[in-house]
């Protein structure tokens, strides 16, 4: 009887172990479903979610760093010499620290908002004060080339009334000054900025379709073309969850008045969190000869050499006619003629490319560097030169507190579920195997016999 009970117990143990193993296996797809639904809920833009809190106000500090190109030989350039440039910077400002305003939710699962703009100078992160003097192109004179007849402007400059170059403070060049040539008009590379708004924007909340979350739902009117006026993707602060590294990410930048795409480059560790790094492709600002998608961005046949010039994007259509050209810093990936027209540029991919580090499960951007260069066209009627003025690095990364929140609140739950699954499968398999082994030996062992000793 005891032998039977022992064998039955071993059989029951084996069955129990098998059931625990099966249950652990079943928890894998069930757990994945739970995780997926949780992430989708928290990635939706609606009050009470993690995505909403990060969307309303950026948790990480966003900085804009500026490097100016100081012209070392302005007199020689006015006589036809090649500009010699010296990079000065960074001059750093805290930006995008104000929460979105006028947030309105609509029945079609979209939300509209305005993004207030402000900049606070950060002396500890700068090479000098805002009063540092920069020798640079006269913005009024350069801008007037597109407004006044060339002969009139050449006459004014030849009379010494106005110079092609000027000396201005960092603050004036960035945020504005009154220009005498343009009758006191406010001039500045980013003027007006403080007290203004970026937007109005309308984005999908993801409530009806999580794959559309944060995508911008408006069109531009700058390019007079249905393709170039489309806004594809988000504002790059977040994307739809569960990234597929084989697919590019699309985002819109108001600084360059167009949408761009970034492709997967590598997986990195950011404060203990795996992130996918996405970078702009060299073809982003390629000439239409190499990238036909850029044809509708090419508007000036003369300055772009019949749309064969690579590496610059003319923004006059969205900058009130000003001859502004955007490029990557130091004309990275641009035509050689752009760099050869000046002295002092040294493009380097790691220092001058734009990239995003995105957490692949949630789609949240946890680290980024948006790098662009502002250039202006200048020159008399028979010569056209695109001169670098300043390049900007807008950057932010998650702080330690946010990193810990991600690891504890989200990944902690995922890891705990994974551990439970593995423990159940391992323990169940172990119980099952041990019970079978003992059952096998129990069957081979003969029952013990009792010896009776006579008294």
From TrEMBL:
Keywords: Cell adhesion, Cell membrane, Disulfide bond, Glycoprotein, Golgi apparatus, Isopeptide bond, Lipid transport, Lipoprotein, Membrane, Palmitate, Receptor, Transmembrane, Transmembrane helix, Transport, Ubl conjugation
A GO molecular-function descriptor: low-density lipoprotein particle receptor activity
Topology in the lipid bilayer: Multi-pass membrane protein
Upper lineage: Eukaryota, Metazoa, Chordata, Craniata, Vertebrata
Name under which the protein is recorded: Platelet glycoprotein 4
Record Pfam families: CD36
Protein family: Belongs to the CD36 family.
GO term, biological process aspect, one: lipoprotein transport
Superkingdom field: Eukaryota
Protein's UniProt keywords contain Hydrolase: no
Transmembrane segments: 423-442
Location within or outside the cell: Apical cell membrane; Cell membrane; Golgi apparatus; Membrane raft
Catalysed reactions, as listed in the record: (9Z)-octadecenoate(out) = (9Z)-octadecenoate(in); tetracosanoate(out) = tetracosanoate(in); hexadecanoate(out) = hexadecanoate(in); butanoate(out) = butanoate(in)
Disulfide bond residue pairs: 228-296, 257-318, 298-307
Keyword Secreted among record annotations: no
Taxonomic source organism: Oryzias melastigma (Marine medaka)
Gene Ontology CC terms: apical plasma membrane; caveola; cell surface; Golgi apparatus
């Amino acid at each position: 009887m005891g032998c039977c009970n022992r064998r039955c117990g071993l059989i029951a143990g084996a069955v129990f172990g098998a059931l625990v193993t099966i249950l652990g296996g079943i928890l894998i797809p069930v757990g994945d479903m739970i995780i997926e639904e949780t992430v989708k809920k928290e990635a939706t833009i609606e009050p009470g979610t993690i995505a909403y809190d990060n969307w309303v106000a950026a948790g990480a500090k966003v900085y804009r760093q500026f490097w100016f190109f100081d012209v070392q030989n302005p007199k020689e350039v006015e006589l036809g010499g090649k500009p010699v440039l010296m990079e000065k910077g960074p001059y750093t400002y805290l930006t995008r620290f104000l929460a979105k305003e006028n947030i309105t939710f609509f029945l079609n699962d979209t939300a509209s908002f305005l993004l207030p703009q402000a900049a606070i100078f950060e002396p500890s992160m700068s090479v000098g004060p805002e009063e540092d003097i920069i020798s640079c192109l006269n913005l009024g004179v350069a801008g007037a080339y597109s407004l006044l007849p060339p002969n009139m402007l050449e006459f004014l400059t030849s009379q010494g009334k106005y110079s092609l170059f000027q000396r201005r403070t960092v603050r004036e060049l960035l945020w504005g000054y009154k220009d005498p040539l343009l009758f006191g008009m406010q001039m500045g590379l980013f003027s007006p900025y403080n007290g203004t708004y970026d937007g109005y924007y309308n984005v999908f909340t993801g409530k009806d379709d999580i794959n559309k979350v944060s995508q911008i739902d408006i069109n531009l009117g700058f390019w007079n073309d249905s393709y170039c006026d489309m806004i594809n993707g988000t504002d790059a602060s977040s994307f739809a969850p569960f990234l597929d590294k084989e697919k590019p990410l699309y985002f819109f930048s108001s600084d360059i008045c167009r949408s761009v795409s970034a492709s997967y480059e590598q997986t990195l560790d950011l404060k203990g969190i795996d992130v996918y790094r996405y970078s702009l492709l060299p073809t982003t600002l390629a000439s239409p000869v190499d990238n036909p998608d850029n044809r509708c961005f090419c508007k000036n046949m003369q300055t772009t050499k019949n749309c064969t010039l690579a590496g610059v994007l003319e923004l006059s259509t969205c900058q009130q006619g000003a001859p502004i050209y955007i490029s990557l810093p130091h004309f990275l990936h641009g035509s050689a003629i752009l760099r050869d027209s000046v002295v002092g540029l040294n493009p380097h991919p790691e220092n001058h490319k734009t990239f995003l580090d995105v957490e692949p499960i949630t789609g949240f951007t946890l680290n980024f560097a948006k790098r662009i260069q502002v250039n202006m066209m200048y020159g008399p009627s028979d010569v056209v030169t695109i001169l670098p003025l300043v390049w900007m690095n807008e950057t932010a990364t998650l702080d330690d507190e946010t990193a810990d929140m991600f690891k504890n609140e989200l990944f902690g739950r995922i890891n705990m579920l994974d551990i439970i699954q593995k423990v159940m499968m391992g323990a169940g398999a172990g119980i099952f195997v041990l019970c079978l082994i003992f059952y096998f030996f129990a069957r081979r062992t003969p029952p013990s016999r009792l010896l009776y000793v006579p008294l």
